[in-house]
Amino acid sequence: MSQWSQVQQLEIKFLEQVDQFYDDNFPMEIRHLLAQWIESQDWEAAANNEAMAMILLQNLIIQVDEQLDRVSQEKNLLLIHNLKRVRKLLQGKYHGNPMHIAVIISNCLREERRILAAASMPVQGPLEKSLQSSVVSERQRNVEHKVSAIKNSAQMTDQDVKYLEDLQEEFDFRYKTIQSLEQNDKNSALIKQEMLALQAMLNTLDYKRKEVLSKIGRVIHEIDMLMSNMLTEELLDWKRRQQIACIGGPLHGGLDQLQNCFTLLAESLFQVRRQLEKLDELLTRLTYDGDPIPVQRPQLLEKVNFLLYNLFRNSFVVERQPCMPTHPQRPMVLKTLIQFTVKLRLLIKLPELNYQIRVKATIDKNVSTVSNRRFVLCGTHVKAMNMDESANGSLSVEFRHLQPKEMKTSAGSKGNEGPHMVTEELHSISFETQVCLYGLTINLETSSLPVVMISNVSQLPNAWASIIWYNLSTNDPQNLSFFNNPPAATLSQLLEVLSWQFSSYVGRGLNSEQLNMLAEKLVGQQVSYNDYQLSWAKFCKEHLPGKSFTFWVWLEAILDLIKKHILPLWIDGYVMGFVSKEKERILLKDKTPGTFLLRFSESNLGGITFTWVDQLENGDVTFHSVEPYNKGRLSALPFADILRDYKVIMADNVPENPLKYLYPDIPKDKAFGKHYSCQPNEVSKPSDGGGKGYVPSVFIPVSKILNDSTEPHSPSDLLPMSPSVYAVLREHLSPTAIETAVS
């Protein structure tokens, strides 16, 4: 079943989440019509490879054209209209930046997998609950409402300033008219009446000036309050959601909404600034005793400038954290001399700033806060922000060709390369620029989340563990000394993040039973997940009891095994995986003989085994577990084929496949049949002949069980024997002879 088919079977509350991330950037019609084709492409790799992204974009347009031809024959007018619109969108919006559509589709597929994983979980995890709080959603709506109200107030004040200007011009005209009269004329009763009218008009001018200043003051105060409270909280929440998304959590959104709020506030502040400039202009033409403009205007202008400075400084954000194209699901781990990408955005989107802001990237700018290792950035490290490269027209810049290079120490050698010293050192990529607009000059700085620098790919697992622990444990964006004394993590939150590693990396998260097993492996006993605090050392530095590796190295090896060798079986949910030997036997003991389950080895790194239940002649139940298969063996023979062809030779018995039902009671071929590389009846018979006169052969995994043994021997004896050849041997040889030959 395709991923999209699974999505369509979700409950309505999950379907509403899916609906949120499909928009005009990637319409749901295309996801639906091209579901299988889309899922068969490597969008993650294309998101960091421009040539590959361009090919996929061109192929996507070809797929749309084929669908367009089909619906044209069916005369489906609505679908024809929508597909033409989508085709125009793909050609116009992404032709200059094909990697953007790859990023969008990759994110959508990843978020679908996360939602599917969440739907299979009995309860929502504590981290995800906090990120999707109804209080947060209500605050978002309040911010948008207040920003809109502020914009309206600033526009209304514009009308008040215009009325004040018109009133002053009328006063000025009438006053100058009186001044031009002869002295005798000024003493007339009519002129005296006019002077009284002018005094009344001046009183009105004074009242309107005070009123306009008061309204401007209220707008400034509302902006100040909004920036100090809700908008700051929204920005911090977005940054926290970005942290969590980087370690596999829910896809973070809301940056476009924040950009809209920041832009409207900036426009309102510049509008207020122009209003204050207009008041200054009116002041030069007319002033009087008690005039409020010279008293209040300087203070208001100073406050506006202060708010603009702060608004711009907060608007400069890292939209996409540093990431190597070769490891798109391991952001913030950078390898020396390997290119990485990073994207920044200015949330204040003003046309006047297009191509006017040049951003400079540096590394470890504050060198006193980091380790003795020193790095420089090679490649293009200065670029201009623009609105043309992003599909949504945001004011952004993406660095695509940066490379970190380690500098030699003063002694002429490189820094400490110990396995944990390197992966616990945090570094920072900094960005700086300057905005010059309407007489203001504002210096802006921002930094990426802490990154880990590695010099060898073998350091990647521990480096990624550091990234997980940091972003799980703190929302401080720049605590580079974090691992000098790393805090403990709540076990319940850590388990949730571990499930995300599986849902984001291999397409299916962990259920509560699987998480229970991981918890017991970490803690060694039954504990309350909500209260238990797990140390960093227990997670990543201390070896598991009786083992030569840590918990994290063990888990990372399993992720690698799934990704490279058993991914379809894992996605289908047929690999129980995380179950202890004790629990395994409890599950199997009352099942039909031949019932088996698949679990990951606890003693071998990156190993998977299967255990089946059998019944002896006296009625006793016995269990057999095959020696774990590792990536070396699975590279030679697909795991589904191993399950199909596996044979056991008991003493004085013919070889047979003991695997009948996948736990709890699924017929083996029903579960794995679609994953077999070929059906048994497709294997050539000896009489068919093989290439160049040879008889075709296949590898068949065989184990031997002695009467006094409950465990089969190693499955490494992979016999180059076809099923048909084996059938012929059974006709001509006794079971004892076959056993002797195998031995």
From TrEMBL:
It is found in: Cytoplasm; Nucleus. CDD domains: SH2_STAT4, STAT4_CCD, STAT4_DBD. The gene is Stat4. GO terms for molecular function: DNA binding; DNA-binding transcription factor activity, RNA polymerase II-specific. This is Signal transducer and activator of transcription. One of its GO terms (biological process) is type I interferon-mediated signaling pathway. Belongs to the transcription factor STAT family. Its main location: cytoplasm.
